[in-house]
Amino acid sequence: MHKPLVSIIMPMHNSAKFVGEAITSVINQTYDNWELLVVDDLSTDNSVDIVNKFVNKDPRIHILFNTRHLKMPSAPRSMGVQNAKGQLIAFLDSDDCWLPNKLEEQIPLFDNPKVAIVYSNYEKISEDGQRTNRVVIAPKHIDYAHMLYGNVIGNLTGVYDRAKVGTIAIPDVHHEDYAMWLSILKKGFVGQNTNTIHGLYRVMNSSVSSNKLNLLSWQWNIYRKTEKLSLIKSAYCYLHYAINAYRKREI
Questions:
Q1: 2 Cβ contact partners less than 8 Å away, ≥ 6 residues apart
Q2: Cα Rg for the chain, rounded, in angstroms?
Q3: How would you write 193-222 as a 3-class SS string?
Q4: Taking CA atoms, which of 7, 119, 199, 206 is between 20 and 30 Å from 25?
Q5: Mean pLDDT across the stretch 67-95?
Q6: CATH topology of domain 6-204
Q7: Residue range 237-249, pLDDT digits in tens
Q8: pLDDT exceeds cutoff 50 at 208
């Protein structure tokens, strides 16, 4: 069976409390042909020391250093993608975790020539890692038109195929993962869900996405400035997004 290399991009900023657990969840994958690119975003704690211990033990793990801290993960993610060697690009934040069979169950779905993105459902966990069965269930399939109604791809679960879509630039905008998924689907491909839980998303009050008012403005900017939708189309999509975002938050 063909086992393409998966490049996993992990931005990190002052993540000493959680990054070891995140890296361990990658090491524990039942699929072993991967590389992990941890991109440090000017951390001031001992995050780098923790990562270097893993680097010294596993040649598949690498650390890169971002020199322009923008207070959002677009720059380190972009650096990771630019240095990635894999055919498949995956993302995992330094405070989240994967379940062991994630990659093994996702990769076969790329055999469908129309599928450029594979994603999964995920479970919200508390800051201290407690699982409470708060599962976010994504649609079985997604295309560009339906993705405009809101980001249904949990970034910690998403993987895309560079052999089909090339290397996708990550824009320096807030909600950059959503803009990236849109740019892939806009090429005419679809995304497919494994219909299983493969990620554990840690909910913390200090996270970048915790300010819901900011999220609303970021979403509007993507509609108007990135996707260049008309005012009426933007308003229509925005209404759907707000409803879907509220439902997701209540899980």
A1: none
A2: 17
A3: EEEEEEEEEECCCCCHHHCHHHHHHHHHHH
A4: 206
A5: 90
A6: Spore Coat Polysaccharide Biosynthesis Protein SpsA; Chain A (3.90.550)
A7: 999 988 888 788 7
A8: no
